[in-house]
Amino acid sequence: MKHITCIDDLRALHKRRVPKAFFDYCDRGSYAEETLRANREDMQAIKFRQRILVDVSKRDTSTTILGEKSTMPLILAPVGLLGMQHGDGEIHACRAAQAAGIPFTQSTMSICSIEDIAAAVDKPFWFQLYVMKDRGFIKELVQRAIAAKCSALVLTVDLQVIGQRHADIKNGMTIPPEWSLSKFIDFATKPAWVSGVLQGKRRTFGNIAGHVKNTEDLNRLAEWTASQFDTSLNWKDVEWIRSIWPGKLIIKGILDVEDAEEAAKTGAQALVVSNHGGRQLDGAPSSIEVLPEIADAVGERMEIMFDGGIRSGQDVMRALALGAKSCMIGRAYAYGLGAGGQAGVAKAIDIIQKELLTTMGLCGVNRIDEIDEHIIAEAP
Q1: What is the Cα–Cα distance from 127 to 124, expressed in whole angstroms?
Q2: What's the distance, CA 37 to chain centroid?
Q3: Which of 3, 86, 276, 374 is catalytic?
Q4: Are 360 and 352 within 8 A, CB to CB?
Q5: What is the C-alpha separation between 225 and 310, in angstroms, rounded?
Q6: Given its phi and psi angles, is residue 341 left (phi above 0), alpha (psi -120 to 50 degrees) or beta?
Q7: How confident is the model at residue 161, as a pLDDT?
């Protein structure tokens, strides 16, 4: 890992080491991928004010996230199927995050179960929830998260209808995989990945296995999961979640000021400005484009988190300057996981922290709470 200098290096290594179907699942977006591209293009269009002759000898990336100390304003976002990027991927990612002193969020659609991770780490982690049609199962999931002492619940609200991801269809990306000669060859040329996944605790959705009858039939399990996303989901369901979850609640998937205003009425402690990484509504604005108006509208009532296109410490700085209190990364650490397991995730976190520290220095900033719109250069 010593020659890895940026997240793009981890992406390239991930692409070489992980079968195409699982790399594309992580890397690609929905439909024409307009929003996926906008997340990066709009981020990179934001320029900094370079400042000189400012004492930046006491730079510090530490902050608080939901009242808890964090070494930097960064969170590992929920990413489905991490255990298919690397065996026991959720455990390795959580360990890397906790070693770095930042939060990790487990996805409902993870390979390892809540209990698998809780037994393998020393500190509480966050759990991400999709509200499915089977409310009894959802209540049980919340109870399992409580039992595992999860310290926050991230309620994802932008997946009632699933945006089509062309790459997944072309690749036959299913759990279990649809086999073909090309896929067999692809897997056979990646023996380290195959060995790691086979040695992992599970190779299906760990939080769902056992709930559906005949869970040894993985196709049946996958079909049940696909049928469970609920198009009737509404704000009353958020009230219901509040009634059964006693801890900190984060609403993820806010991209509109009116929705942010509604989120602020729920009693949730935070919201995440997010377009699901460009994997849902193609043609939606980039997350960074809408961040300032959402932060202005509800930032004094809720903690604002940001998700969408973060690939560097510079990107974290941009989001903080425009109103975010902290940022989530998904693809950036998933690339690291596919590239090198726990060490790869640790490398991704380290890259972003060092880039943030350097950018702070060149912008004349010593502390996270000093970062605001004044570090951004005016558009020409």
Answers
A1: 10
A2: 17
A3: 276
A4: no
A5: 29
A6: left
A7: 87
